[in-house]
Amino acid sequence: MAPAVPLALLVLVALLAPGLGVAFPSCEYPAHLWCSSREIAVACQVESRCTNLSRPAAAPVELSLYYESLCPACREFLVQELFTTWLLLPAEALSITLVPYGNAEVGAGPTRCRGRSPRRCRPRSDRLVPQERNVSGKWHFQCQHGPEECLGNMIETCLMHEAKNFSTYFPVIFCLESGNSVTKNLEACLQVYAPQLDRGRIAACVQGDTGAALMHRNAQLTEALNPPHQYVPWVVVNGKHTDELQAQAEASLLGLICRLYQVGRGVGGGLGDTSPSPPGLYRP
Question: Its Gene Ontology molecular function terms (predicted)?
Fold first, then answer.
């Protein structure tokens, strides 16, 4: 019986036989990695044979989440859908913007939520009044779930302002939203996920004019939504919100983002296509 041929050698022959060439001397990568990135393919002089690299680069899918820090439906979506999707996708596939502000205050009474779990929280009335007001040149806010939610919104907004980098602050926000108290666990979450951040600077932002100005900006972003938001979490994908996009994001955000990103690369179907996504998007 003929001796078995190593798989790596077969790959080497398949790649080089058409041109009867040899790998570039600087290629120090095993054959099975030659097509794993454009840089490696160039170094090993096999770029023309790596068909997966010929697909056009796509812009990341842009997702904006408008939410409230204490809304049960928002916390569920952020923790179970958004954070998980962000972990599984490569950085170039998804760009996320978080806007903690939410529904206008309509007076005392329970939050009205829709869907099992629940999935959406609405104001309990259609008679909305402003959630922010300017008193003697300073912004004051009312929140659907009370003063603690206003504090939670402010903490997360100031955290984003101080951290700057999404990969730094999003795990901290995940920690806050998945814990038993959004407003009391900042120090513990920072110690685990971002010990380099200065809690004192975040506190100064929350208690000062900077935090109020940042929350006012969140109010402006929320009030400028078109169509106007009717509930939270409110998901905007690539600048658009539709009932179909919202439903798909709630059912499987990972599947939605994968389909849209593959369409941007010229692969696969469009919105509503339920076929499996091509491999290669998921982080190991």
Answer: oxidoreductase activity, acting on a sulfur group of donors, disulfide as acceptor
Q: Which of 19-33, 88-102, 113-127, 134-148 has the lowest mean pLDDT?
A: 113-127
Q: Looking at the structure, tell me whether residues 68 and 131 fall in a common domain.
A: yes
Domain count, the chain: 2
The parent domain of residue 74 ranges over 61-244
Q: Is residue 236 part of a domain?
A: yes
Cα 270 from chain centroid (whole Å): 20
| pLDDT of amino acid 47 | 80
**Contact criterion met (CB below 8 Å) for 153 and 68:** yes
Buried b (16+ CB within 10 A) or exposed e, 177-204: bbeeebbebbeebbeebbeebeeeebee
Give the pTM: 0.71
∠ at Cα 71 (68, 75), nearest 5°?
90
Q: How far apart are CA 259 and CA 252, in angstroms?
A: 11
Residue 30 lies in a domain: yes
Q: Are residues 40 and 108 in the same domain?
A: no
Q: Each residue of 166-211: pLDDT tens digit?
A: 999 999 999 999 999 999 999 999 999 999 999 999 999 999 999 9
Q: For residue 135, what is the domain's CATH number?
A: 3.40.30.10
Quick check: helix, strand or coil at residue 17? coil
Q: Which is nearest to 105 in space by CA: 121, 126, 128? A: 128
